[in-house]
Amino acid sequence: MAKARPRQKWFCIMKVLIVDDAPSNLRLLRAVLEGENFEVVEAPDGLHALDVLEHEAVDAIISDILMPRMDGYRLCQELRKSERWWGMPFLFYTASYTAPSDEKLCYDLGGDKYLRKPAPVKALLAALSEATQAARNRPRARAGLPSEADVLKEYSAQLVAKLEQKNEELAKRTEQLEQAQAELEKTNQELESRVQQRTAELKVSNQELESFSYSVSHDLRAPLRHIAGYIDILFESCSSQLGETNLHYLDTIRGSAGRMSGMIDALLDLARITRVKINRRPVELSALAGEVCAELQESSPDRVVKLEIAPDLKANGDERLLRIVLVNLLGNAWKYSRNRADARIEFGRMAGVGEDTFYVRDNGAGFDMAYADKLFGAFQRLHSDSEFEGIGIGLATVKRIIRRHNGKIRAESINHQGATFYFTLGDGEQDRSLAAA
Which distant-in-sequence residues (6+ apart) come within 8 Å of 311 by Cβ? Predict the structure, then answer.
């Protein structure tokens, strides 16, 4: 099988001036020509090309037509006016002026070759060779070329035609843009209407849910009261007749009924927090935390706990709801650190850029970080009742209050060595409803 012959390169190195306002076109042409042993200089428009020619000798020009300041037509026209550059090989290389009349004007102005972009390397090199040969055969006089007046007339006609074409394209694009804008406005109106409809439906659903919650609480509380009442009667009237095992069963039933009643009350409190209006104002968090800790100490006067409350902590929020946050967070820290002889509870603020981040930290039982995502769910507990009592609604309440303040809350614990709860309180510009969250 015969070997493919390598493409023949120019034996004599030529210096070519490429004129184009698109940097990508200049890079591509330079790469092609330098790969074929040409020396290349560049210019971004006709005026710059004339300046280059004043300072550098080149052997040929490859020029785009549509360029700012001076286009390829005028560049060729200026060169053909000069005795110095009358014989300069000139190749028009264009992607925008592609009509037959455009090509005719290229030759009327004195161009040696016309080529449409993009052209294969072989076609480009052949066109450059033909332009060079045509330049060698061109007579020294302007004989055979149209008069300058005719050329200017033709040039003006081409520019007007091109301007009209651009105006038509612009008008079409404007029409498309207006149509797209009209469709967008229609879509926005439909979306707004749907949002309003969904908001109204959500409001009705929330009202129905609220009514349902109160109805369920009433319906559930009544039988629980009956259960508790009959158990009390059995204890009072039959305790002597019941054995120790049966009395234990009754006591267990009474305890379960009491816990269920507490869970119902907690759910109703959680629902109320969802509906309550946020009244933001400056809150002295340090003082609020001090009051909560004093109440905890009063509830367990025999406990010795090291309390560290950072001074002058302030926030903008609903004081009533923020008290609930601190009651739950500090209360949990108090409860889960009760087995530590060196119990320690901290309330402070992290230094940093942006919104304040407050924290409650203890050195108590902590939790397994693998289950951290369950901490803030209703009735989700990571410790058994035998270890620490509780319903499992406190942190869910805290999270809803924090979210009502546009804030965030997260928890950390390392190897069950205490826990730290971090929370922010947002800026108050858009207090969100938990129903939407």
Answer: 286
